[in-house]
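Fold it.
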Amino acid sequence: MKKIYLSALLLAYCFAAMAQQPTRTIFAYGGNFNRQFMQYVIALTKKANPKICFLPTATGDNANYILAWYGACEDLVMRPYVQRAYVASYTEKKTFEENLLSMDAIVVGGGNTLNMMAIWKAQGIDTVLRKAYNKGIVLAGGSAGSLCWFQGGTTDSRPKDLSIVQGLGFIQTSHCPHYHSEPLRKPLYFENVLKGKLSPGYAIDDMAGIVFENEKYIKSVAADDKSNTYYVSVVDGKVDEKLLPVVEVIK
């Protein structure tokens, strides 16, 4: 009887511990940020007036891109921040970890995925993002900002041809952004998945997005009625493109 009682207590403790674990959330969209996507990120935080930080690393912290971010966030119920990667110790009084782990959400911008990944690894930002993810801070982004959360996918980060780049692997599949807006993306993604150069994964049109929770696909959303998301895999030796129905159009 004592053993049964102790086992029940241990089981109850395990369930309580699991219930206290934060939900790990990623919102990946296929193109650039816009007002609708930022409004959706706000909702995902489940916070009133959340702190949301933009990482413009993939554009080399381009000033115009940062201004566009602030413009997209104007009048939204949030507190916008920017974390530059090109910094100096004299002007930055907090570490990357201190800044990023104080946020409710982190949004990664588009640009050169390969260079962004290299800078993040050199600066230790990749490790900080893993901590943020495990803490329950919402992670989001499109283009390079969506590709970074997956195992890998195709990128225009190198001269001449689209090529494969490795991501952080928070979601253990491949990913293809700009699925229908850039004609070369879809056939190359098909080829790489079919040949096993990329694992099966998720393709997203520019104005659509996917919500993942605890590394699991939850739902597809879109900012218009023409954009979609897909799961691309290999079935019986052929590429299989499965449409993932959009359950919500973001206004």
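The longest strand covers residues 216-222.
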